[in-house]
Amino acid sequence: MAVYTEVAFGEAAALLHRLSLGDLTELRGIQGGIENTNYFATTVRDGVAHEHVLTVFERLSFEQLPYYLHLMKYLAGQGIPVPEPAADERGEILHSVQGKPAAVVNKLRGHSELAPTEAHCRAVGDMLARMHLAGRGFEMSQPNLRGLPWWNETVPVVLPHLGESQAALIRTELAYQNHVAAGSAYTALPRGPVHADLFRDNVMFDDGELTGFFDFYFAGNDSFLFDLAVCLNDWCILHAADERDGQHDAGRARAMIAAYQAVRPLSMAERQLLPAMLRAGALRFWLSRLWDWHLPRDASMLKPHDPTHFERVLRERVRHAQALSASLLEEACVAA
Ligand SMILES: Nc1ncnc2c1ncn2[C@@H]1O[C@H](COP(=O)(O)OP(=O)(O)O)[C@@H](O)[C@H]1O
Ligand SMILES: N[C@@H](CCOP(=O)(O)O)C(=O)O
Fold first, then answer.
1. Does the beta carbon of 105 sit less than 6 angstroms from any atom of ligand 1?
2. Which of 10, 209, 293, 300 could form a disulfide with 304 if both were Cys (CB 3.0 to 4.6 A apart)?
């Protein structure tokens, strides 16, 4: 259930009208998603039907939202397929519904691919690299709010809820990531606006064609390599109900990296730090899932994801990331 704020038909119609999107003909609450209230809205303008998504933000504030919405608008203007926030006659893209921040974006065609093939991973790698290149001209800046400083703050908060071996793993990994971040290779990583949560449920495909990236509400300025690692950890691993859960799938990973590199080749520092960033990407989501699980902010709204999946991914990465990266980069070079 993801309609926390009931929006009346008339209220939505007035907003869409003010945004010059036409006359509202249908408003349907979206059941997916866990953070915000989302509605699909159909309007008719000049006899043509258009589909939009109306989001009422339940977590992010009026002050936090401009970075995300302007980033989407900027990327859409650069030809990257992301939902474009609709502006009113004053050019404002952040609106208000029942006193809460709200936005209206175009609806992307298609559906998420939860069992991706190499072709899907190739399409994501290609578009991710294009998005990174396009984002370099975006002038606003905001750190990744789920980056290293947040990990340092949050690990002590979840530690009392962990068993001994989990506590040892999370402490050791955090120390390792602080050590990596203090090094010269890390400083040399190319940076810019990144999605930072580009999981399979945040990308649409229609008949095999990638139609867009969405849900930019964890975006921030960070290393491009971290963004790629987050994708590799979700798109290119086995999601199994057994001990293979979290193991990588070399074919899909190779396809994603090769497609990425065909657009934006990885620098020396990025090649060197791929193993560390695969571990960072696993730590990031293990930690946020632990935090949501043990310290729910509002139990009625959040359905926390299973943290143990990313614990397995992290253990797997700690054991194999070095060898995995070496083989993937070698194979990716051959494939590219
Ligand atoms: N621009 C969009 N185009 C098409 N579908 C969308 C769009 N935005 C959201 N959705 C749909 O709404 C669902 C919930 O959106 P999401 O951003 O993941 O919500 P939440 O932030 O609450 O987790 C998605 O799974 C998708 O089906
Ligand atoms: N991808 C994250 C959860 C982020 O929530 P979202 O529904 O807004 O994408 C995870 O899997 O832990």
1. yes
2. 293
Strand partners, 191: 223
Ligand 1 centroid from CA 304, angstroms: 17
Q: What is the ipTM of this complex?
A: 0.95
Atom number of ligand 1 nearest to Cα 2? 22
State in Å, rounded, how far the first CA of the chain is from the last one: 43
Average pLDDT over residues 263-278: 96
Which segments within the chain are labelled E, that is strand? 23-29, 37-45, 48-56, 95-97, 100-106, 191-194, 203-206, 209-213, 220-223
Nearest CA to ligand 1 atom 26: 32
Cα–Cα dist 77/67, whole Å: 15
Ligand 1 pocket test, pick from 30, 51, 109 with the greatest ligand atom count within 8 Å of Cβ, gives 30
**Ligand nearest the Cα atom of residue 57:** 1
pLDDT, tens digit, for every residue of 221-240?
999 999 999 999 999 998 88
pLDDT tens digits, residue range 100-126? 999 999 999 999 999 999 999 999 999
CA distances from 229 to 27, 138, 216, 308 (A): 37, 22, 17, 19
Q: How far is the centre of ligand 2, averaged over its atoms, from the C-alpha of 304 (Å)?
A: 9
Task: Spell out the domains of the chain, with CATH numbers in brackets.
Answer: 9-106 (3.30.200.20), 118-335 (3.90.1200.10)
